[in-house]
DNA sequence: TATTGTTATACTCTATAACTATA
DNA sequence: TATAGTTATAGAGTATAACAATA
């Protein structure tokens, strides 16, 4: 029993390639946003705040899949950059509602530019068709996860 | 100047989706191989040793893009599991040549199975065509990186 | 008593630097 | 002197647990 699969079988899997390329992509993105004083997680939080209705920190923690204490730290740093505001919910004074400021939206736009630049670098050897097919595939895959 | 892009533009990028899905995929894979006493990096090292000609630890460090001291730790643990052997190169007694044992190949096969199971879970909502297209896209993207 | 946010603490991962042995 | 491997140490990132305020 127990098929012999070896390295070739592992390299053929989606998770293996997603894992290695994901780490690479995260590094490239991190390198570009650090000039803004941000880490990838800050960008993720800014993105979660944009468009979405004003959210409490607990909601954001579960939405991003991180510990609430991490949201506190990220929000502290974003607040120091003037990117977010904390407002106590008058209906429930335990809740801190985070909202993007104009500066926060500006930073988010810079993050998007950084990501686009990293995309261009990463996909330099690919055709436009390959690139868009890949992006769409990843988005549909991502949309299937956490489909609450 | 300075286009307004917002969260939608960020979410449309490859690096953003690769980063988030890569972290998710790595977690799922880690959850499955930890029963084998392994972390994803161990699997990466095992895969690097399979097929490839016997490699020194320095070569492996640069190949995997990690510090040499990390290879030492990973190899220590794999050796303890009986998965690799360290043999001093008689030509240059400073070099430790790592080779897979039969147990190492067995563990590598188990890692491949774990990755395939994680794939199935992750792509549950996708058609076969979507899944193979995505896997191929990622492999071609991965092959373009570090094309030394 | 339960929940939100916060703080304090600890743990995991990994790199850098110092060291040993061989060259 | 330079290089392969190892060991010691330190830093980043993040979670867990204890705590305060509010419900």
Automatic annotation (TrEMBL), chains A, B:
Cross-referenced Gene3D superfamilies: Winged helix-like DNA-binding domain superfamily/Winged helix DNA-binding domain
Organism: Kitasatospora setae (strain ATCC 33774 / DSM 43861 / JCM 3304 / KCC A-0304 / NBRC 14216 / KM-6054) (Streptomyces setae)
Domain of life, source organism: Bacteria
Cross-referenced Pfam families: MarR_2
GO biological process, one term: response to stress
Domain HTH marR-type, first and last residues per copy: 11-143
Name listed for the protein in its UniProt record: Putative MarR family transcriptional regulator
GO molecular function: DNA-binding transcription factor activity
Alphabetized InterPro entries for the sequence: HTH_MarR-typ, MarR/SlyA-like, WH-like_DNA-bd_sf, WH_DNA-bd_sf
């Amino acid at each position: 029993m127990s098929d012999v699969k070896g390295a070739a079988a592992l390299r053929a899997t989606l998770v293996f390639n997603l894992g290695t390329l994901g780490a690479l992509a995260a590094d490239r993105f991190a390198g570009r946003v650090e000039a803004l004083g941000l880490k990838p997680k800050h960008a993720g939080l800014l993105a979660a705040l944009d468009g979405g209705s004003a959210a409490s920190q607990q909601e954001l923690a579960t939405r991003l899949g991180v510990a609430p204490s991490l949201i506190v730290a990220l929000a502290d740093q974003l607040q120091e950059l003037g990117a977010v505001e904390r407002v106590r919910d008058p209906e429930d004074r335990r809740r801190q509602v985070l909202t993007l400021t104009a500066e926060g939206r500006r930073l988010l736009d810079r993050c998007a530019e950084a990501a686009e630049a990293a995309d261009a670098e990463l996909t330099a050897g690919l055709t436009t068709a390959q690139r868009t097919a890949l992006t769409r595939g990843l988005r549909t895959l991502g949309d299937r996860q956490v489909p609450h």
